[in-house]
Design brief:
The protein is an alpha+beta fold. The protein is 38% helix and 19% strand. The two termini are 51 Å apart.
């Protein structure tokens, strides 16, 4: 057997190494088989006994060698190995991972109902059997908040627009509809969503339940657009809630993390569809401080992109296009090709340094470089040495130059303009904290960034760009990180990031360890001082028991955890909609 032979060869190598060390060091004891035998010859009965013991050990050893060298297939890892049995990956085992590739589960239960009646039957049966069916959307949450091995239910096949009230600008949809699909279907009515997150592939049920947000100090998180919804609950069946009908549960369940019921239908308050003018320009922290209050109050949408180890701050504003003035007449100073050239040059230089991948002509395959977008180039650059601070600084400086040459205006509909290319696989942590009021910003948001940048440089964190800062108005959803009853309150959202630009397991593990060290430092130095709490789709459960207990206590001070758990007890007493993350973050009093 191959494995037996390998083990034997390893043992011979060990003995050879032992004798070599003994010759080099006389004090090192030499292995001598005679030391383990007695000098007088044993009686024949003892010899027979030892012989049969030896045969028995030989048979057992052969059996073990056969077991461990049996040719299991690579996909047999998902079943517990049994002696002399072949364990292939079952046909009914579904692999579900989040978009960033940081969380993955395998489950035999992945249900996709096509109607609310079918969903009701699934939830009812699962509750009777006490079988978990955790609601999961498009899997876009960086922390995999909707995943569990025990079983999941996904509403991708419940994706219809049910009704549109053009006069009131309201739309009722099945919760499985994706944002882009919804926007495409209602634009003929001249309406759209009030705000958007960075991407458009989220299911409406998921984007609402985790308290997702866009940017704009006058615009609340997306859950605030919900005016009513239908929940399919294990204990009470299908219930319809709104601010008029059971308002206490409505404001608790609107950002309910999928733990109070499966969101089946949602009615959203929309706005008139408008063309926006996006203005992108490069600034610095000194100028940002001078103009920050004006930027927040005068722009419908605004965000800052900070580039670590540089003074560059990319400012992106979006406002409705003036019907009187029309689109801006300004032409960009540089073409896209010119903006990318500095990044391409660094890519060629880095290829030569790290891989030597140059052709006889002295340059790598040109068509490949030309076809790459900025974010693809950045991923390829970072993949060469992702944890080398000096290399990351070079990439960041190239990014700053790219943005300097990308300054200018762009006109388009809100769903086209407000998106953002986030790049490839990544770890991300985003925190939300109060930043004063729209009429009187506290400037704590900029202080947070300054401390973060100082921390990065002091600790030599290989932090890539961008560090994204956005703002929202408050939400009345009680589980929202931006919860407040004061309409004028504003909240800042800051995201730190580390990309996973390689599929090499060892390298991804190293990046993951560095990212969590980075995140832990920001947590220790900043979160408490600024009352910052992580986005529900980006919070990670600590493995350390003391850290977990501290997080649970902190969440309980900010959020109505007791009310949330009580509602879970009433609506989902068997916890069939829960998963390990929810149980860790919100343990019941009995569990504690």
């Amino acid at each position: 057997m191959l494995r037996s032979f390998t083990s034997k060869r390893s043992l011979q190598s060990l003995l050879h190494h032992h004798h070599r060390r003994c010759r080099q060091n006389p004090q090192f004891p030499i292995f001598n088989p005679r030391l383990f035998s007695s000098s007088p010859g044993p009686p024949s009965s003892d010899a027979e006994l030892r012989k049969y013991i030896g045969y028995t050990l030989l048979v057992l050893g052969s059996a073990a060698a056969t077991y461990y060298s049996f040719p299991f297939s690579e996909n047999a890892r998902d079943k517990k190995a049994q002696l002399f049995r072949y364990a292939p990956l079952p046909d009914d085992l579904h692999t579900v991972s989040n978009w960033s590739g940081t969380h993955e589960v395998r489950t035999r239960t992945f249900l996709q109902p096509e109607s609310i009646e079918e969903l009701e039957g699934i939830v009812k049966e699962a509750n009777v059997r006490k079988h978990k069916i955790r609601p999961v959307g498009s899997g876009l949450s960086p922390n995999g908040i909707g995943l569990t091995r025990a079983g999941m239910v996904n509403l991708a096949l419940m994706d219809k627009v049910l009704s549109v009230d053009k006069e009131k600008k309201r739309v009722t949809v099945q919760a499985g509809i994706r944002v882009q699909q919804l926007v495409d279907e209602i634009k003929e009515f001249g309406i759209t969503l009030q705000n958007f997150a960075s991407i458009r592939e989220q299911q409406i049920g998921g984007i609402v339940q985790v308290g997702a947000h866009g940017t704009g100090a006058r615009l609340p998180p997306i859950d605030e657009q919900v005016i009513s919804m239908k929940l399919v609950t294990p204990a009470k069946g299908t219930i319809e809630i709104s601010k008029e009908k059971d308002p206490e549960l409505f404001y608790l369940a609107r950002c309910g993390l999928g733990g109070l019921g499966v969101v089946a239908e949602v009615t959203l308050q929309c706005v008139e569809r408008q063309e926006l003018v996006e203005h992108t320009f490069l600034s610095n922290m000194k100028d940002i401080k001078k103009n920050h209050k004006k930027f927040l109050s005068e722009n419908k949408h605004v965000k800052y992109l900070y580039i670590p180890y540089t003074d560059a701050v990319v400012v992106v504003t979006c406002n409705p296009m003036s019907k009187r003035k029309g689109p801006p007449k300004n032409k960009p100073k540089y073409t896209t090709e010119e903006a990318l050239q500095h990044v391409r040059d660094l890519y060629l230089e880095s290829l030569t340094k790290y891989r030597g991948q140059v052709t006889d002509s002295g340059s790598p395959d040109e068509p490949e470089i030309v076809e790459l977008s900025f974010t693809e180039l950045r991923d390829k650059l970072l993949a060469m040495d992702p944890l080398n601070k000096e290399h990351v600084i070079k990439v960041n400086k190239a990014e700053a130059e790219y943005w300097r040459k990308s300054e200018g205006y762009r006109v388009g509909w809100s769903d086209e303009i407000l998106g953002f290319d986030c790049g490839g696989h990544q770890w991300v942590s985003e925190t939300c904290f109060p930043a004063g009021t729209l009429s009187k910003p506290s400037m704590k948001d900029l202080e947070y960034i300054e401390e973060l940048m100082q921390l990065i440089e002091k600790e030599s964190v290989p932090a890539p760009a961008p560090i994204e800062q956005r703002w929202t108005a408050s939400s009345k959803s009680r589980m929202s990180p931006a919860y407040s009853l004061a309409d004028d309150d504003i909240f800042s959202w800051v995201g730190i990031i580390m990309y996973l630009p390689t599929m090499d397991t060892r390298q991804r593990r190293q990046i993951t360890e560095e990212f969590f060290h980075y995140r832990h430092m920001t947590q220790a130095q900043l979160w408490g001082h600024y009352s910052a709490f992580e986005h529900w789709a980006k919070i990670e459960v600590p493995k350390d028991k003391e850290e977990l207990a501290a997080l649970q206590a902190r969440l309980k001070k900010k959020f109505p955890v007791d009310s949330y758990n009580q509602a879970r007890k009433e609506l989902d007493p068997n916890r069939i909609l829960s998963n390990n993350m929810l149980e860790k973050l919100f343990p019941s009093s009995e569990a504690v």
